[in-house]
Amino acid sequence: MKLFPTQEVGSLMRAPFLRKRLDDVVISEAEYWGKMLGVEGYEVLVDKLRRKEYTQEELRDWASLYAIRFHEAAGLDVVWDGEQKRIEMYEHALRQVKGVEFLGKVKVWDAETYNKAAIKSKPQLVENSYVPEFLFAKRHARRELKVPITGPYTLSDWSFDEYYVAKARPSESLIERRREARREMVFDLAKEVVRPVVLSLVENGANRIQIDEPAATTKPGEVGLFVEAFNELVKGINARFTIHICYSDYRLLFPHILEAKAHELSIECANRDTVRLGQNERIGYEVLKLFKEYSANFMIAPGVIDVHSDYIEPPELVRDRLLYAAKVLDDPSRIIACNDCGLRTRRWDVAFRKEKSLVEGARLAREAIERG
Amino acid sequence: MEVEACHLGGVMPRSEELIMAFRRFAEGRETYDSVVALARREASALIEMQRRLGMTYIVEGQLLWHDILRPFAEHLEGVKVGPLTRWFDNNLFYKKPVIVSNLVRTTSILEKYVFTDLLKGVNWKLILLEPYTFYSLSTNQSYSRWEDLVLDFAGIIVDELRSLKDSGPALLQLSAPSLVEKRLDMDRVETVKEALRVIKNGFGGLLMVHLFFYDASNAFPWILDAPVDIVGIDPYSTNLERVRGYSFEGALAIGCIDARNSYVESSEEIGAILSSMVRCVNAKSYHLTTNTDLEYLPRRVADAKIERLAAAYRLLRGGLS
């Protein structure tokens, strides 16, 4: 098996032509990227943009194709369409669910907000945009695909609960009532919302699924619940599962995470690391020692590219991060090269150079191992 | 048993219009003055709403505060605004103060962030962070003794309150999750009490410590002997069995409204929560409040909860048996 295989983590900034204002600059960008990435028939899109003869659905398909070619042209082994057809990871998932009502914006920090939903009745998946999205990508991708899906624990943690807490028996203590309500809500989201999506994707040929759980460690006492829910949703499904958790205190995952029936764990590390070259000490990757200490048996995808900075990591830095991670785990075959998280916040020119660096850095690391 | 007061337990959410104004300001498309003008209008409406509902103490919402630490992180000498950090166990983040040298107050901070002119003649409530919680949420790169940082911050709170002169609050709430996140050792408790004493002695109004997100029993019984007039409890996080049988000579503020969930409690549910707490802890009097800040909710949901809290207060005022 190839050492240090390369993967993306999900999102990519929207393609230029999905922006609200379609002016000449945007059309030039569509032309530039289409040519540069080798997008077949991009001239057709450019012509449609010029003549203003397109539908939004067409543009979303083009965006998906551009993003697939973006990752392929960068040289990644496993690709996706950069979530070009989704709103964002939370709202997109719950817009397809009955029993959910969006109540309005709540603060995440400063002026950053998200549209938060309440669970009003037992949630049920009533639409499934993931299958047509996947089938489109499958038709066009020349590399292996990995489909990202938001996990049930995060959907629960980022939502209000007006259903489970209300139906709990009033005689129970508030703490107990809340705990039981929470458990039922997470499991319903796993069984009634996320699992049907995963099953439908696998039935249609998906064999790599990434479950995004950025909220996994938000409530330290519920890490076990997150793992139980994950296991429930993947139970008996024949696919390769990645769990992605970012910007979290990974120490809190232990020991529960060892029970997760996942093949890969993708975590953010580059954001905490220095940009100095070297393989002897890397502060951002110290957390990997825990995985070694606990003999975690899944593959680890430590982020070697920081997605919150325009700094382009040189391939040598990527190489050193990967080699250090391999040294900590004492097994280079258990390391996957990827970004900290999706590249949604980076411009395409920055994101592309970062992905190229990722691929080249992984090649250098591979060479170093093979040279012994 | 008397339910003698009703007030909100924390910072209010901004309206969508105000959120957008702050975003435009961050992007350089709006002036700060126009953001402040909008926030002022919203604060005024919020004050009027609480008056109409008969709230005992009125908050102005603290709508200009990005987080409860930020005014101090931005304006105290010796502090830098640090990285985004998770606010306890919530999907909400604050910017961690980094203490690079000893704290020095060189300007009046609250007057930049509180619409005190709207509160003239009003019994109003200010919400600040309790000093030990401020310390535990900061990165200390300066003080060799953490106790000195806690006490210096307490002194700064007093100086700030004094700077407000006649327009100061009638009630100061110190939000204090770090006092109950885990049980503190007695050395820490003594420093916390000393800081509370500094504030109590320097402030002429009522002092409340609000214990939320975690089990209030982690601060029992010492908090009941601390120099405070009111202790706030989050019944959604507190195991009542662990506080059963205690007595308090001051008032207990019971956070009967869960400000982290959109489910709007009925008056009966609020009454039941209050009653179960009253059966557990004997206090001189009881206040109705929210279990924490309301900024976890969209504004219209927060407003609905405030209405319900006030309705419950009208039913329960003075009449709890």
Shape of chain A: globular
Instruction: Give the strand order, joined by hyphens, for the main sheet of chain B.
Output: 1-10-9-8-7-6-4
Order of helices and strands of chain A: HHHEHEEHEEHEHHEHEEHEHEH
**CATH topology tier name of chain A:** TIM Barrel
Mean pLDDT of chain B equals 96
**How many domains of chain B?**
1
For the terminal residues of chain A, how far apart are their CA atoms?
17 Å
Q: Secondary-structure element order of chain B, as H and E?
A: EHHHEEHEHEHEHEEEHEH
Tell me what the CATH architecture of chain B is: Alpha-Beta Barrel
Radius of gyration of chain B, whole Å: 19 Å
Quickly name the level 1 CATH class of chain A. Alpha Beta
Q: Strand share of the residues of chain A?
A: 15-25%
User: Main interface pair?
Assistant: A-B, 28 and 38 residues
Summed over residues and divided by their number, the pLDDT of chain A gives a mean of 96
For the record, what CATH class of chain B applies?
A: Alpha Beta
Helix content of chain B: 25-40%
- Strand-pairing-aware structural class of chain B: alpha/beta
Count of runs of 4 or more consecutive helical residues of chain B: 9
Number of domains of chain A: 1
Could you characterize what this model shows?
The complex is a heterodimer of chains A (372) and B (321). Chain A is α/β, with parallel strands linked by helices and 372 residues long. Chain A has a single domain, classed as TIM Barrel. Chain A has 12 helices and 11 strands. A 6-stranded parallel beta sheet of chain A has the order 5-7-8-9-10-11. In chain A, strands 2-3-6 form a 3-stranded mixed beta sheet. In chain A, strands 1-4 form a two-stranded parallel sheet. In chain A, strand 2 and strand 3 form a beta hairpin. In chain A, helix 1 packs antiparallel against helix 2 and helix 11 packs across helix 12. Chain A is globular, with a radius of gyration of 21 Å. Chain A starts with 23 loop residues before the first helix and ends with a helix. The model of chain A has no long low-confidence stretch (mean pLDDT 96). Chain B is an alpha/beta fold. Chain B has one domain: TIM Barrel (Alpha-Beta Barrel), CATH 3.20.20. Chain B has 9 helices and 10 strands. In chain B, the strands form 2 sheets. Chain B has a 7-stranded parallel beta sheet. In chain B, helix 1 runs antiparallel to helix 2 and helix 6 runs parallel beside helix 7. The mean pLDDT of chain B is 96. The chains are: A alpha/beta (372), B alpha/beta (321). Chains A and B meet through strand 2, strand 3, strand 6 and helix 8 of A and helix 1, strand 3, helix 8 and helix 9 of B.
